[in-house]
Amino acid sequence: xxxxRKKIVIAGGGITGLxxxxxxxxxIREQNLPIDVILVEATxxxxxxxxxxxxxxxxxxRGPDSFLIRKKSMDRLAQxxxxxxxxxxxxxxxxxxxxxxxxxxxxxxxIMGVPTEIGPFLKSNLFSLTxxxxxxxxxxxxxxxxxxxxxxxxxxxxxxxxxxxxxxIEPLLSGVxxxxxxxxxxxxxxxxxxxxEEKHRSLIxxxxxxxxxxxxLPNKGHAAKKEGAFHTFRNGLETIVxxxxxxxxxxNFIKGVRIEKIEKDNSRTFITLNEGSVIEADAIILAxxxxxxxxxxxxxxxxxxxGEVKTSSVATISLAFPASAVVQDKEGTGFLVSRSGxxxxxxxxxxxxxxxxxxxxxxxxxxxxxxxxxEEAIVDLPDDEIEQIxxxxxxxxxxxNEDPEFSIVTRWKDDRPQYRVGHKKLIADAKEQLSIxxxxxxxxxxxxxxxxxxxxxxxxxxxxxxxxxxxxx
Length: 473
Known about the structure:
This protein is α+β, with helices and mostly antiparallel strands. The chain has 3 domains: 2-48 and 242-309 and 420-471, FAD/NAD(P)-binding domain; 107-210, protoporphyrinogen ix oxidase, domain 3 (Orthogonal Bundle); 311-417, Polyamine Oxidase, Chain A, domain 2 (Alpha-Beta Complex), CATH 3.90.660. It is 33% helix and 24% strand. The chain has 15 helices and 22 strands. The strands form 6 sheets. It has a 7-stranded mixed β-sheet. Helix 1 runs parallel beside helix 15 (453-471), helix 5 runs antiparallel to helix 6 and helix 8 (191-200) crosses helix 9 (203-210). The protein is globular.
């Protein structure tokens, strides 16, 4: 019986690889399949970018701090793991854009920067009269005749002009990828806007029509209170990583070891680990970054186009204060920074307001971001220099009269994949190459088809489903 058992190797213990392992273990149990799953993680911990620091009553995320509720896969996984009762929504509040040394409210009704309510847009000081008139051109401009992919910048500048893009849309959209919207792929990041233009012509009118109407409170006639669009876990995102590791008893975790070679001998595939052992695998899921995939298949002359997927470097710094040390005269949850200003920070979240469960009573927790395409040198500075630069920026915006009780700096070097124009085709071509040369190897993860946590879970599950279908055919 043992000779008939099959082996699946997952490379990478981030949320993509863990999700693949979870959904494979589920099928193996339900169908009583003779399949072993081995997960190889190069570091000594699981979770990848999900890293939670629990300190002195604070819950501090080094990587992502939440996920979109409308993308259902993370909530569904939490439900299956028995964690649904630990989910919490973000508190809603005003968000701002820092422009000309002043915090300007993001106009009400803006959807990723696209106005759907004319009043707040016209009253906003983010734009000049000329900029507002140019944006109104969206009501009259024809549909685009561009075929294929285009950059976010080109698309939105054509619809609304440079001022609205530079002062609102760029800070909002580029922050997700720490990228340059004039190179970012529309097709791979926000294709829904192209669909709205195709169907409705005007983005403003189209987005207004496609948004669900707010439900009315019973017998009141007033709009229901706006609810948060994001979820996290009461005790931090690493909660789900800990649950996955605990609930995957049949998965063989190999930590602190990396894959050095993947080779093929007729229908047999062999994985060599850096400590010298060799695993014969019936299927492989590469849930690593694209750079690792490219390197592993360089000897075979495939996946080399993945070198065209650029990356950016960012750092975050979380700063803890007593409440008396920070004087904030603006109500809200945080702000983004326009590129036109003389600031090193690109955004700041008032975590004690947005995520009250992260912060003890009587404390303030701020999280600032630095680094983006073309402005990455700051990421290499020592922690104390980053802290002083960030504090200097923040003190220009609101009063901070004490040094922080502590700070935590996290660097993500060459870590943010950039979905540039043509990304979707590039990835499709790479996967096609792989399917011909190594049909039992799957690619999944943030480098390919979405950087959000739900996107990565979807990719891990889809890869697991394809592998299981092949092995049980």
